[in-house]
Amino acid sequence: MSSANVAELIEEYQGMFDYNAIGYACLALLVYDWLTSLGQESVVIWSKPKTAASALYIFSRYSVLLSNVIALLAGFPGILITERCVATIYLSVVVKYVAMIAPAVFSALRVYALTQKNKPLSAVVLVLGLGPFVVNMVRVAALPETTLPELY
Q: pTM of whole model > 0.85?
């Protein structure tokens, strides 16, 4: 192996290490935020009857946490065997893109409440808020089939 190949390999692994370190730092911050607000969340969300608003909160809060935990597990070598790795990739993609719906719904509900139930304006906010989700779904649909591995 030539010294140029070794240098390229070291550079590639250093880039992967840096990327993973940043990801772990972000996940640590997310878990810290989750743990510090867990007491208040248990009083406000979990101890009261479930409503659509609490379901939206739970979905938006835990989809981000789930997405990051999946990414963390995918980053550890040797944890996921091939079949699980493929399922993890698909689950990660689904959670990542479905999580884009919650902010749009929350914004539309907020506009609905603040404008004394103005449905047309809320619908416009919802459609505009779903823009990133739609753009990403079109992009995923346009990807070549070889981009994602086959699901077993």
A: no
